[in-house]
Amino acid sequence: AREDGWSDLGVTGTLLNRIQPKFDVRSYGCKTLGALLQAHPVHFEIKKRGRKDKNVYVRCVKLSVKYPMPR
Description:
Blueprint: E1 7-8, H1 9-19, H2 33-38, E2 44-49, E3 55-60, H3 61-64
Antiparallel strand pairs: 1-3, 2-3
């Protein structure tokens, strides 16, 4: 993650898989990691950038108090 707490969703998924290889989002009723994180807006923020919103970033909500999301 960058200093402001935002991390590329793909990188986040790769690191999560390295840390916990048995983790499967389908166990939580979701098809993708992005869908799982979006289902928990109290804990995670999602932002989409770039052409057709193809670049997806995620961060923990508690970090957003210190670093508000840019508009």
